[in-house]
Amino acid sequence: MRKQPKSNIKKRHLDLECLAANRYGVVGSTAIAWPGHPVKFSTGIHRLRQAASDLRKVQPDGSHCELVIDFSLNTILKLVVAGTAQGSLITNIESETASAFSPEGVASTGQSRSETDSNGSTDKSRQIANPAPSIEATALLEAGQIATATAKISMAAVDAGNSMVRTAEERGITLEEALTAFAKSPDELVSRRTYARAGGAAQTITYSSLGERELGGGRKVPAELHSINTFKLRRCQLTPGGRDGSFLLAGKDDDPEWQRLTDDSSSEFLLSGDKDGVAMQLLGYALASHSLVDVDVCLAERAGTKRRKLVPLVVHNRPEIVAGARDRLEFLEESQSE
Length: 338
Fold this sequence. Notes:
The chain is α+β, with helices and mostly antiparallel strands. Helices cover 38% and strands 22% of the residues. It has a 5-stranded antiparallel β-sheet. Strands 1-3-2 form a 3-stranded antiparallel β-sheet. Strand 4 (203-207) and strand 5 form a beta hairpin. The radius of gyration is 30 Å and the shape is elongated.
């Protein structure tokens, strides 16, 4: 059977009636503790947005979740799965289990005495002893089951992200190690967001009765992950890359190192590094004098966005670049004197 694209899956609708009846399953929640005195409106909105952002960070890809706010003593944001209006879509729900979620709290009382009678009356007695669950009960049970499964995925993905944070703090982590770890996560995007969130303030995510996980905590980890593999690129051309002083670098198609770096869809890379470093200054001179460059680079990737760039390590044809820049300056001086 062909798998239905996630974009074509109809999202569960969470309306006011669903909220008022608590007809949803909770994936996870996070509490906002207010200081007990007035705060600036911007401060309150910032805290709400940060908590909402953190819950979104731990939401597995493609899950049917929406954010709600529980205005109790603490303001609690919840990531929830709505119950369906038509009841459960799960066909193997046991009546005894479903009745535990029923608003009436009807529970099975065991076998009827008439079950010892003929087969004809036994079925009717069982129906009386174990009435079919209501639509509301089956909807709530299904929402709870989906929420629990989603929470388990989220917790495992957050654990994977936090494990990478600890590794990065203890000894550093290479891009190659990070990509391997992300690939093993049950939800790569959640793990990436968890890692990227590490430097911010601590926020606890409560997964109902399953446990708690923490995001942030002021951890000192690099936002960009650098590859341990380097690439010795030769005769590359530079063009301006942006206002930040970066460059666009295009290599030679017949350069084996360029072929090793790129794939069929990549013809150029953003090249950026310490703007005050020798390598970046030499590259600036090369751009101004239209000189080709021989440069060793490594690959860098932002964990949260997957955005990649090249970081210059060593520029090899320094004399050629300096000579080209000097010739360019002399030409400009001669042009000005004419």
